[in-house]
Request: fold
Amino acid sequence: MRFLSATQVARLLDLDRTARPYYRALADALRGLVMDGRIPVQVRLPAERHLAETLGVSRTTVTAAYDLLRGQGYVDSRQGSGSWTVLPDPAETAWSGFGGDGLIQLQNAAPAAPGQFQAAVEAAVRELPRHAMGSGYDPVGLPELRERIAARYTERGLATRPEQILVTTGNQSAQHLVISLLVGPGDTFLFESPTYPHAVEAARGRGARLAPVGVGSDGWQPDLVTSAMRQSAARLAYLIPDFQNPTGALMPDAERAEIVAAARRTGTTILVDETWAELALSEQARATPMAAFDTDNRVVTIGSASKLWWGGLRIGWIRTTAAHVRRLALHRSSADLSAPVLEQLIVAQLFDRLAVTRAERRRTLRAARDTLAAAVREHLPGWTFVLPSGGGSLWVRLAAGEGATELAEAAATHGVRLAPGPWFGVEGTLEGYVRLPYTQSPPLLLDAVTRLAAARQGAGRREVAAVSPMV
Reply:
């Protein structure tokens, strides 16, 4: 195991000697060095006594700093073996989830990067120089990433060739590309209510007529979806059948087949968003890709690296026909030329580690989901929800007479940024709901629920703060 001497660590530290409490400033500085990569993971730190002597502080100060880092998950220690640096397990540490404003970010449903992330980045960086001989522009995406995405669709029961994949700069880019190509002024855009709001805004920006169809935590009513397609003459239908955002519902295979058949009869193209598809919390909670029921190329599927791996990787993709990929690649040139090469290489490496990451996410998200559900039941009586079998959030119905917008404003004054139901609907609907993500650590979720309980009691009686936009 590698190690650093007390002198080496002291040379890396940039500490304000007047900071109080000093042990916390020392812990923050050490954690920052680990997160910046200046102190690598799995490096043994100097003994507490040696570091204290070198820094000219008491041993108690260094001991307290090491203890704080252990609690945050950045230091591991064993009797007789010393202390070494590690990265925190999101299921066991509360050190995550606070934004730059110091508030718990419950409007954000994206998890932190998984344990395989650093190894994937290092491998991608080693691969990058061989790509530097070219221009770096590939409007359809790097071949190695398209091959891996296509192979994963094939593994899931949807035979796919790399030529059917277009790599984009994130899921929203994929949405905008498809919507802007297929929807024009006056066309009908059908979508679930509630739903991911940015797709609706993209269609609104194209001058489309909006046609919502209801979906609940218990799922879809296929006859309502199919009749809405027929009655509205929908040009494009946007659906999230896999752990729907925000309800968490999973569409059964029979309903998928029924809706695709209806789209064939009505001439509707279906845009299927699979952002959450890999985040089943058990192996049984899975379904066949919706495009597997497509016989005439009217299902376009989009995916993303943001929820399975990390939101900071702005990589998404579109699966469609090879001819449609070429049209989309030409269409994208007015917005961007290609996705970043390094990020594509990182995602390609992460696909090679998919099984490990899925197992980690299943373990951590399941622990966080169960913690959040139990806390809501205990501290927020009258709130109800259906426990989802995957995805990243609870879709919670508030007690009678409570309003989500007012609650979100009160929650901000208690240190929590909240996503009220109207964000996921149109024209002010869904005021009786909030989305509570379980992508944060269990201790942080317990803290957030305690704050929400206090905010709930004081809603409407306190000066409120502005609510930030949803991520």
Remarks:
- Residues 18 and 464 are 35 Å apart (CA to CA).
- Residues 90-96, 460-471 have pLDDT under 50 and may be disordered.
- The chain is about 40% helix and 15% strand.
